[in-house]
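Transposase: structure tokens wanted.
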Amino acid sequence: MNQDAGGEPLLPLHRTGVRPFTLAQAYRRAKLLVERSGLLPAVEAHLHAATGAPREFTARALLVGLATHGLRQGEMHLTKVLHTLGELPPSARRELGLPHDVDTYRMLWHAFTRLVAALQAGALAIPHNHPEADTATGEVLPCPDDCPHQPITLSTFTGRLLRASLPESLQLTGAVAIDSTDYETWARRRSWARTPDVDPDHLPADAEERREAKKAKPPPNQLGWPRTGHDGRAQHTLDPDAREGYRSGSNGARGGVFCGYDLHLTVNARALGGPEVPFAFTGMHLPPAGSHKGDAGIALIDQVRAHQPDLAEVIADRGYSYCTPERWAYPVRARGIEPVIDLHTNQRGTHPGPIPGTIILDGALFTDALPTTWRDLPGFPIGMPTDKKQALRARYDARAAYAFTPHSRPDRDGYQRLKGPARAGKLRCPNHPPSMRLPHTRPTTTCAPGTDCACGKTLTLPPNTMPWTRQRALWGTTAWAADYGRRAAIESGNAEAKTHRLHLDRGFTRVMGTTKNRVLIAFALAGLNHVLLRDWHAKRRRPDPWATHLDEPQPAPATAKRTRARRRTATLTTLAGTPPS
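Answer:
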């Protein structure tokens, strides 16, 4: 068998993906997922009573059944999960502790709701593996270092599931791309509001969207609706946690208001300048729609850091970076993470700098020697041709010679030392004599000799200066485009979850409440990780790490695209009146 550059065997090239998991493959992987997550002891300790009749629908059957159905990429309905359990062979059902006559929906629903109640009450924890007290003296004993006891919160539950779906061989790069997408509640809407009560930091709607909202005439509200929810916000459905929020337009459709949840996701992104990596989901958070995006993003980052302590970069769109610094920029930098962001139109423009002779332009610090013709450059609208993008980025690259550059790494308390462009050797300034010895290919400023310009100065920026927009690469430059372009990882992940593989839209789950929906979606995303990793390795003619771990045959190719293309060509030739060859 041929080998690639790393010595790994090359498998047959798969042109159109691989076949779906069989039930046996899904069951084996589901058992491995539950085992690696470490959640089973905690769920068993809560669901299985120490006294009375033993539980017939076991905790193992609940977790493995949810994981098996998630790996089959079906809608996460409990009735369909029960059907998946019913398809298992008798040996697998005995292994899960399921007699042949107890697979009723009532038992599955009872076990699932007990799990949800424990997560909501904070009553789920991995049990101690040692005596908690001295039987002779009653003294409480401390936990040894190898004791696995740990409270299992909802965030810990979903984080452990997603981390367990990633093999040890998958190299996490320390960079994640983050984004949120809408997830509409299954409950029927009973009322509408003229102005949704969303967080004040959300992105402002454009003029066209505001005009359309004024024209829209919602149906009349039902009697008694809307209600005031437990959080003080308006409740428009029977779902106690679903709220109104904005969703952005996609595929040419205009955005608008929906009722449900904001699904925040993180995806493993490649390192800057590094090789491509699989776009696997590493974290998820599901607050009610219209909740503060910055707070939700920080909660998701903390979930990822619990399993990836070396997280160093987060690539976020304007929905996060537009939040006030106290709710996004400050917490991100306080965790030692470098944000890579896009700028909203309101965040661009020219403003006075922190010291004389400087200006803040498009979120970065420049010397005011920058020519005025380079200060008001246009943005990058959607659909802009590639050649025009490259030409515009060249203009941003040219004006970068007048920008201040970091003199050292940021301090732990957020202070950043910067040096002027003449001191950094990027341009020539008569007020900084060493710079005049630079080649004449560098731009020369028009600063009058003897004036107190800032071209050769060094200054320290406190954390509250430019916190909204500061990042390591200048916005609009080629370097920034390469840095921020890695955000395509989360766009690809969203497309796989909402369109290509799963269909995470209204009706994917038919339960109400944040906890129930989040548990079911977490199992679906964990299964999707297995599918994405298998296909990513197959298309690159590499062994699937989970198939290798389980000693399974490597995935077989599906129907070749070449066959379909030949059949379509023959059909077109026949329609044209020429017999196919």
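The two ends are 35 Å apart (CA to CA). The mean pLDDT is 86.

Cheers.
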